[in-house]
Amino acid sequence: MKRISFSTWVLLVVVVCLAVVIVLAMLGPSVGNIYSNITSSLVTDSSGRYTSPDTETYRTASAIQVLNTSSSQPEPAQPRIILRNATLRLVVADAQTTLDHIITVTNEMGGWVVTSSTNLTQTVAGQDVTRGSVTVRVPVEQLETALAQIKAEALTVESETITGQDVTQDYVDVSSRLTNLEAAESQLRELMEAATESSGVLEIFNQLTVTRGEIERLRGQIQYYDESAAFSSITVELIPQAVDAPVQIAGWNPGGTAGRALAALLDLLRFLADTAITVAIIGVPLVLIFGLPSWFIYRRVKRRKAG
């Protein structure tokens, strides 16, 4: 029988080791999954030993696992906080009648009147008429409906502005600060109850008073955001038609004539001012550059002739 050399043995050992490594690498994930499935169905007791999955400990561990899984889910995104407001300038036949209509529409929609005012004004013809202004708040989802009903009473809509302000980031910041301050207030109360020295109690009480005041301020700001986001503000200026209409006498409009005359006067004054500025900027340097030398030359020539 032929003996196998030492180098051949070494080569065989290396080949076998490589084969074992390849097999383990191929079976590694499957073995890991099997081990995970086995161990996941078991729980350990206080000594670290595996116990039966039918025990109460297993049920408690499963409940904790479910709780941890649910708590790890992402929180829903913060909804946008948008403050929508509108401003109207309307020409109406009668300001008081339109004002009463706006108040009625606001009340029917579940809103309220913030401010309302009227005043007498005199037209160019000497007629006393009523002007008015009102600010109301209506539910934000009915803003468009309210604007349509208010504009329906107008003869002319001179201007309309609708604004939307996104205060989501400010709302989140204020809410976070409020949460932190409420936690600080709870800790200060615990410290004050545990304090024994009067100086310590007084210092904690002062800090608690400041914290409480800041909490109330932040709560008021959050309430303002909530209310402003839920109810839109509408400000309406009511101009009677008699004030807005130009004065005309038998087809003659003296107001228009006066306006055109004033515009012509302003154009003339502007032309004269532009001319003066142009002469000052261009003429003065020309006089200094050419006028003075010419004047000195003229004086010298005159003296020679005189001599």
Portion in helices: 55-70%
Helix count equals 8
CATH topology title of the domain at 83-167 and 232-244:
Alpha-Beta Plaits
- First and last CA, distance: 153 Å
User: Approximately what portion of the residues adopt beta-strand conformation?
Assistant: 15-25%
Low-confidence runs (pLDDT<50, min 5 residues)?
Answer: 38-72
Main sheet specs:
5 strands, mixed
CATH architecture of the domain at 83-167 and 232-244: 2-Layer Sandwich
Number of beta strands: 7
What's the CATH C level of the domain at 83-167 and 232-244? Alpha Beta
Q: Radius of gyration from the CA trace?
A: 45 Å
Mean pLDDT: 76
How is this structure best summarized?
With 307 residues, this protein is an alpha+beta fold.
